[in-house]
Amino acid sequence: MTRECGRVNPPGEEAAMYPKVKPALARAWRDLQTVQCGVTPAHAVALGPVDTATGALIDRIDGTRSMEQLRAEAVGSGLRPGQADELVRRLAAAGLLDDATAGGPRAQALRDRPETLERLGPDLGSLSLVHREPGGDLRGLAARRGLRVQVRGSGRVGAVIAAVLAGAGVGRVEVLDGGRVVAADVAPGGLGPGSVGRLRAEAAGALVRESAPGRGPRAGDPEGPGPGLALVVVAPRDGLQAWAPDPDTAAGWVAAGIPHLYAGVLEGTGLVGPLVLPGATACAGCMERDRVDRDPAWPRMLVQWRSVHRRRPTAACDLGLSTAVAGLAAAHALSFLDGELPASTATRWEAALPGLHWEPSPVSPHPGCPCAAAVSPEPAAEPEVVRS
Question: What are the residues whose beta carbons fall under 8 Å from the beta carbon of 30, sequence distance 6 or more?
Answer without folding.
Answer: 36, 46, 48
